[in-house]
Automatic annotation (TrEMBL), chain B:
Name this polypeptide is given: Dihydrolipoamide acetyltransferase component of pyruvate dehydrogenase complex
Any single Pfam family the record assigns to this protein: Biotin_lipoyl
CDD domains on file: lipoyl_domain (cd06849)
Domain Peripheral subunit-binding (PSBD): 181-218
Location of the region described as Disordered in the Swiss-Prot/TrEMBL record: 121-154
Family per similarity comment: Belongs to the 2-oxoacid dehydrogenase family.
Signal peptide: none
Amino acid sequence: MHSICSQATTVPISNFASGSRSPALAFSKQVNLRFCGLRKEAFGFSGLTHSCSSRVPFSSRGYSKKISASAESNGTPPKSFDYDLIIIGAGVGGHGAALHAVEKGLKTAIIEGDVVGGTCVNRGCVPSKALLAVSGKMRELQSEHHMKALGLQVSAAGYDRQGVADHANNLASKIRNNLTNSMKSLGIDILTGVGTIVGPQKVKFGKVGLPDSIVTAKDIIIATGSVPFVPKGIEVDGKTVITSDHALKLESVPDWIAIVGSGYIGLEFSDVYTALGSEVTFIEALDQLMPGFDPEIGKLAQRVLINPRKIDYHTGVFATKITPAKDGKPVTIELVDAKTKEPKDTLEVDAALIATGRSPFTNGLGLENINVVTQRGFIPVDERMRVIDANGNLIPHLYCIGDANGKMMLAHAASAQGISVVEQVTGRDHVLNHLSIPAACFTHPEISMVGLTEPQAREKAEKEGFEVSVAKTSFKANTKALAENEGEGLAKLIYRPDNGEILGVHIFGLHAADLIHEASNAIALGTRIQDIKFAVHAHPTLSEVLDELFKSAKVKAAALNHAPVSEPVAV
Amino acid sequence: MAHILQTSFLPSTSTLRRTPIPGSKAKSRSLQVKAKIREIFMPALSSTMTEGKIVSWMKSEGDKLSKGESVVVVESDKADMDVESFHEGFLAAIMVEEGGVAPVGSAIALLAETEDEIAEAKAKSQSSSGSSSARVVEEKPKQKQESEPAVSAVAPTVSSTKTVVVGSAVHPASEGGKRIVASPYAKKLAKELKVDLGTVVGTGPLGRIVAKDVEAAAAAAAGVVAAASPASPAIAAPVASGIELGTVVPFTTMQGAVSKNMVESLSVPTFRVGYTITTDALDALYKKIKSKGVTMTALLAKATALALALHPVINTCCRDGNSFTYNSSINIAVAVAIDGGLITPVLQDADKVDIYTLSRKWKELVDKARAKQLQPHEYNTGTFTLSNLGMFGVDRFDAILPPGTGAIMAVGASQPAVVASKDCRIGVKNQMQVNVTADHRVIYGADLASFLQTLAKIIEDPKDLTL
């Protein structure tokens, strides 16, 4: 659920709601953040292709020499190192990088100031999946109509809130232990404390009240992740006005909860809360709900996930002020029109969940010691995750992955970026194709996507002068989906009819999150539609939805004569 | 499918236009002359589609449409698809409502080029609707009724007009009724059941309108409609002077509601357990604190509430036949006869409120009931009902369980009786008989027996009642 998994030490959230920001600015940021996960990199596509075409295979050692002059002023780097690689932040990004580093024979340490596992394992994807598993089962059991259609009889389904909360918590600690053990068993040193960069290739770490230790490493990866973003004017008390951090503990199930932000964090929580009996009001700053998704998928999702449920919504409004419940008064939310800035409405609800995106967690990293200035908190990096300093120069041996660089705020993207960095520092140049990274929203049914949305593809096509086609298939025609009585759903393929290139795939339907990988792998490997359409799918499976999708695409005859599988493209 | 969709949504020149639609020939000719009111046709969304069902109209009549905007969602044999407008204009008239089915190529709506033409288009749609081959499939309302819960205990409505009290919600944010605070689901239901939220009294937290308020309002409204025409002459008839023999007098709304609830109660498997309770101590207590405005009803309600607090299962109800619903508060409903019917004002949280406050509250409720000014939450939130006929000298009777609750207690008169005590003496004691009717799906014999034992203990040693 949460885009990224990384370390987040205990820093008051209010730090991130930067006081000076106007509400408008704060929200424009929110929008941006939501797009980070799904879109941002897609927009930066052309920039990446450029870098790819001019790819020069040189080792990390080679280019570090080239730019070392600029770093000289920051002090001389040590001659011998404690470690080959130090990773600051033991979230999913740091973990992925560390495992790959060991595989490559690097002596590796990971610094964690909070708990191993970061946001994803402790306050994000993992516990939320536990809650969503419960909500999915509740939905099934409560849907009398659905049960009857299958010939099943179930007596009233109920739930025990504490039991559900425990399930989420137990899952998080189990995964956290697995993660810790996997690193320990591989001989990765887990250093406890807040990591601060004190100079080139030098990191200080330590717990409050204890003397700091300084360690050196040939290469350093920053993977400090993010924390929930709370816009100005919103007072979070952790009880009635909450962020995802609190909501995942499921300390209460309010009768009526307002969710600020209809991105995938908000959407997933609406799924959980409505399944557990709450009524939900969405507050969205943009004109339509689910702004990050392909419009057609968003429309269908709204018809299935919002309209028939106990949910209403206000779009095109900012929640400028949210006051927690106090002295018998409910939570009050002041809404202001996003365009005219006129007060529009006041809501009184039992609780409010702030799901307006996430802010990078980069405070206290010592970035000033190496002349790095963050951009809205994000650490600037190039396409190889190399950190860029205030003068626009690359800092040798310093990388930043995951939410902290804001390229694509997803756990698996952070991990992929980490692996890419390890590849580079071990002598093989590698650039990650962010357009091949899938994203998923685990509602019931699920939403998943990879690559460009239709409007993005059309915009790109207009700029670069190619044609775009769209193919669609419905879950209503899939045997397995019908057997499950879950025929609601759509798969959509956006492609180039001239050469059969897959530009984007969007799925809304049963197990969409698991189905997307056939498409994302095809994009990552550069497989074209004319080739993948001959791949065989087991019958009857949901994967036939994609099979049919590829088969229904109409690739021009000219493309079919070309070489069958093109070389894997790294973009 | 996408490109089929594009061509099938017909502009006036397309091929399907030329295929004559039965019965609409004259109309299409006139359209060609004007060419400013366009028809929106049921598109062919797949090669096998012969007819389509309108899932929902995304625009309402009078809305402006821009080119490419989605107008309607159509369900075909394969999928639900959005149909987009290929012209700018105003959606003038919807000819096939949501849920309706129309064959491919038949007109489902009219599109006017300018706002002025909307009226003209409307007239056209009316004249042609007779010949339209669309048929409406009615399936939604049926489901609604099934899911509607039993509205209230014994008497859901005081009178048809009074239940609907405009702006009396006490919600602090309602600004004296100007703003309506309703939960998302309540709003949704209100739209579906066509209930004006402005006329609904909220019983949710802080006076918020919740789903059950809307359902209650809808049920009340339905009652009004049903009773309206036949009832009016009856009301005009001189009822006060007595009953005119040989006439058939239709139920008032309240009587209708009682009748409905009574019939509904037959679907609940009930059983009865009786108990004789000595009331000497209670009578003594009553004498002592009567001057402070305490009533016997309040004392009985309080005693019952305290016993219920110790036996939560007696305070449950069975909503769906599958589960216990443990009520969070103990609300004692007390049946009161008012002319031509009965109503059950509710003493909320009777276990927590002290006896003096409870007595004052009771007086207030009775006054309101006589004036027919009880709010729905003051008569339909009971979790346990008391019915007392003792004042008539009735020594024992049997009550019918109001739907939606778990138990009702019938209280007889307290009368002096010759009693043999355990120490083999004979004496005179005041005794009353109580008889509890309960839903055996949730409340079992032993539950009721031990509840009555506790109640007897409380009444026979009533010092706790004044705490």
